[in-house]
Amino acid sequence: xxxxxxxxxxxxxxxxxxxxxxxxxxxxxxxxxxxxxxxxxxxxxxxxxxxxxxxxxxxxxxxxxxxxxxxxxxxxxxxxxxxxxxxxxxxxxxxxxxxxxxxxxxxxxxxxxxxxxxxxxxxxxxxxxxxxxxxxxxx
Amino acid sequence: xxxxxxxxxxxxxxxxxxxxxxxxxxxxxxxxxxxxxxxxxxxxxxxxxxxxxxxxxxxxxxxxxxxxxxxxxxxxxxxxxxxxxxxxxxxxxxxxxxxxxxxxxxxxxxxxxxx
Lengths: 139, 115
What we know:
The structure holds two protein chains of two kinds.
Chain A: E1 8-14, H1 20-34, H2 38-58, E2 63-70, E3 74-81, H3 105-113, E4 116-121, E5 127-134
Antiparallel strand pairs in A: 1-2, 2-3, 3-5, 4-5
Helix pairs in contact in A: 1-2, 2-3
Chain B: E1 6-13, E2 18-27, H1 32-44, E3 48-52, E4 56-59, H2 61-76, E5 81-84, H3 88-96
Parallel strand pairs in B: 2-3, 2-4, 3-5
Antiparallel strand pairs in B: 1-2
């Protein structure tokens, strides 16, 4: 959950793939405004795109919510849907040596690019993806 | 809203037993259908494949997954596949997921040999 009490931007988006590039541009623009460098902005953009892709593909709802919170030297992002949710045991990071086509590749990428990633999901009760990234920290 | 932020061009050289696929734009959940329809044509050919990503600005796990199935398909036909001219932001994803070797991306830029 977002803990920061600074500026928070909330956006509601349709679960329509055609808006995925809009989501990326939004994330990129907010990260730029906060002061992240180009490489970090790229990481945030990819991670938000991956998280949103999961929601669009699996949530079975019409809209979902994105929150971006500005910290002094970090950004917190929460992507929340009230959709079908997942059994937490289904959320796994794939073994890249064996299976790169697995749906978990997106989660692997998010975890590699962000400093913190937490996924809370319950069957029938939706999913919350929380991510945090600090400035000036090497991936 | 433009739902085709991707363009694809396939060039076949049967003499050299090689085809070149040029993808431009962003490969994501929105554009993957267009990419996959082009990949189906690639699947049906019995040629080595070079994918030129010079004009590809973005790729995510959706696109990487499609390339992995393409790799498997080429391998099943005993044909090669190589990705060239990646932008750094795109290259990073291949590096992060240990997929550079799979697509012959480890050679230096000065290496003119394809395989």
